[in-house]
Amino acid sequence: MTVRSAEAVAIHIAITAKLQSNAAAEAVEEDFAVLLEAYLQSIAFEETLVRYNRVSAIFMGTDGVQDFTELTLNGSASGVELTDEQVPTLGEVSITWI
């Protein structure tokens, strides 16, 4: 029996968004990263798709976010497919506030 290690796949997220007037960008970014990390951990070894709609829902559910105009996962406005041997990990999160 051969045991293979899981391959980590970094999920890089780029967002252009509007901040609520009473929110601090740094706090929103930190909260989003925590929520996103929890989502990615919850699907590791369970699902083979990082869902675009789920990531957008997590972002919109983060306190301080008013709206977003663009969101990409690994450069694409769609989910990220994984194999059974891959697990998603949080890569770079870049938020441009407008």
Question: How is this structure best described in words?
Answer:
There is one protein chain. The chain has 98 residues and is of the alpha+beta class. It has one domain. The chain is 29% helix and 39% strand. The protein has helices at residues 25-43, 52-60; strands at 7-19, 49-50, 65-73, 80-81, 86-97. A three-stranded mixed beta sheet has the order 3-1-5, with helices on one face. A two-stranded antiparallel ribbon has the order 2-4. The longest helix is centred in the middle third of the chain and has 19 residues, at 25-43. It starts with 6 loop residues before the first strand and ends with a strand.
Offer a concise description of the structure.
The protein is of the alpha+beta class. The protein has helices spanning 25-43, 52-60, and strands at 7-19, 49-50, 65-73, 80-81, 86-97.
Blueprint of the fold:
Blueprint: E1 7-19, H1 25-43, E2 49-50, H2 52-60, E3 65-73, E4 80-81, E5 86-97
Parallel strand pairs: 1-5
Antiparallel strand pairs: 1-3, 2-4
